[in-house]
Amino acid sequence: MLPIIACSVFALAIIVERFWTLRPQRVMPKHLVAQIWHWQKKNQLDEKRILGIRDSSPLGRVLATGLLNRHYDREIMKESIEEAGRHVVHDLERFINTLGTIAAITPLLGLLGTVVGMIKVFSVITSVGVGDPGELAGGISTALLTTAAGITVAIPSLAFYRFFRRRIEALVISMEREAIKLVEVMHNRKTRSGEVPSQAA
Fold this sequence. Notes:
- This protein has a domain at about 1-95 and about 165-185.
- Helix content is about 80%, strand content about 0%.
- It has eight helices and no strands.
- It has helices at about 1-20, 25, 30-40, 45-55, 60-70, 75-90, 95-130, 135-185.
- It starts with a helix and ends in a 15-residue tail after the last helix.
């Protein structure tokens, strides 16, 4: 039971931390590309503003990397954004695999506890006989509790693991859209002069 309890504590901590970290408004502030476009049009996009963008959010880190390379070729700017994006995705996925591991091992820990408990019960039967059936049933019940505890921890852990995976995928797709939009804005491709780019949903 002790390893299962420890896993439950770790799982709860990860779930709370990831809920806070993966909030859409924290990862992708609204109208960030539009603000960058506004500064660019007014020639106010200096290094200080770019550093502020970088420190504001995960999306800001990706866009700031592109902005630092905006004077280079379009492909170079895209490559720098993709490289920064890989690091950001790695940070977004922090602890997620640990949560998946907890979801996988806690039922096995519960089963192991039950097997060990049943071995002890049958060892007692071998040594002193059946004795009191009530006590024997109580020992079996106690052994089975570990399996129940393991499954109880595993089910929400697996559910939140899949939930966070889906949220990260959605955030990454949205960040890719915003990054592409930034490249087009900086290189005057798809955004017409005087048109403020809209924020992706």
